[in-house]
Amino acid sequence: MKILHFLFFCFLSGPAGLIKEKHNIWSAAEGANASLRCPLTLSGSTKFFCKEKCERAEDILIKTDGSTAQSGRYSIKYKNGASGRGIVFLTFTQMIKSDAGMYRCGLGRPSAPDSYSDFEVRVSNDLDRNVGFYRTQTEGEKITLVCSSTVYGHRKFFCKNQCKNEGEILIDTTNNKSESGRYSIEYRPRSVYGLYATITQLTKSDTGQYRFGYGNPLSPDSYAGEYVLVIDDSNPPASTLQTATQSESVTAGVSTHCPDSSWLLVVRASLDGVLLMAVFLMLFYISKTRRNFGLNTRENDTNMELSVTHENWDPTSKHKESKSSRTKPTLHY
Questions:
Q1: What residues does each domain of the chain span?
Q2: Which distant-in-sequence residues (6+ apart) come within 8 Å of 61 by Cβ?
Q3: pLDDT value of position 242
Q4: Collapsed DSSP state (helix, strand, coil) of residue 24
Q5: How far apart are CA 284 and CA 231, in angstroms?
Q6: Quick one: pLDDT at residue 298?
Q7: What is the pLDDT of residues 209-253, one digit of tens each?
Q8: End-to-end CA distance of the chain, in Å?
Q9: Nearest to 145 by CA among 51, 52, 209, 71
Q10: Distances in Å between the alpha carbon of 208 and those of 29, 32, 123, 186, 204?
């Protein structure tokens, strides 16, 4: 039955069960100072920041019970968020090529964290070193930016670049949810961040700086800003290929260079068919085994009953003899 349960689990989960949400990718220029926010689902005392598998001592960049810590070019700052959640702010100074790779920040032990977040860092010479980190996304995908400001305003906005003129304003609304073409903004009162701005069907022309927040967009009361880099990731550079290969054993995210979706559908359909056939054969085998076992049991019971009757029969018994004499016919001559 354990095998049957396992097959049912595999069939119901399917190949898609092995594919989870894609990890965030952050890009920065060589020599830049860059910071990012690492949101967690819990709050805790021990914070850590590590690279790659986080299994070796040299993988652990920072581990502390304090709210701030620094080690070489890396620093960490912890802040309690809303609803018992924590936020870790990470900073890289004077970034170098070898900073590229997979990272993890979290709470608890690095080898078995209570809460953590995985992300990928890429280092390039083609970016502005004054910007810091670019949130990196692939063409055709969508991106959601978040604003965790504690200052709330009835008026919300979403704009590109510096929001210095009306032409840069994408959305300006007093509603909790508004949409304009590929751009949308939504305020969720009881959510982790509150304000969410989304761009769908990304193109390379979407690369740039974005601001979103509360109040008048030309003179906001509160806002968050983020730089977005949209790339064609079908042919990533060699350094990216190396990082993606390493990330497969570190995170559950999908590799950034996936096969064509139609091929995935064919593979999944084939695997689903094989799993379904395996479940059917297992059910048939169990049913047949139980039926044969039942027949054998009844046959053994019958043989046992006959054997017991035979063993208890005494040919010298008077009862048997009298019964035989009563049934034997009398011949008259």
A1: 1-19+263-310
A2: 49, 50, 51, 71, 72, 74
A3: 36
A4: strand
A5: 51
A6: 52
A7: 999 999 999 999 988 899 999 998 665 544 433 333 333 222 222
A8: 74
A9: 209
A10: 15, 17, 17, 21, 9
Q: How far apart are CA 324 and CA 153, in angstroms?
A: 109
Q: What percent of the chain has pLDDT over 90?
A: 41
Q: What's the rounded mean pLDDT across residues 5-17? A: 40
- Burial label, 61 (beta-carbon count in 10 A; 0-12, 13-18, 19+): buried
Nearest to 118 by CA among 224, 17, 231, 40: 40
Q: Count, in order, helices (H) and strands (E) of the chain.
A: 4, 18
Nearest to 104 by CA among 113, 92, 115, 116: 116
Structure token digits, residue 219:
């003179």
Strand order in the sheet with 134-138: 60-64, 47-51, 101-109, 112-124, 24-29, 134-138, 219-231, 208-216, 156-160, 169-173
The model's pLDDT over 42-80, given as tens digits with 9 standing for 90+, comes to 777 889 999 988 888 899 999 999 999 999 999 999 887
Which pTM does this prediction carry? Answer: 0.62
Contact 143, 202 (CB under 8 A): yes
Beta bridge partners of 313: none
φ/ψ (deg, to 5) at 30: -65, 130
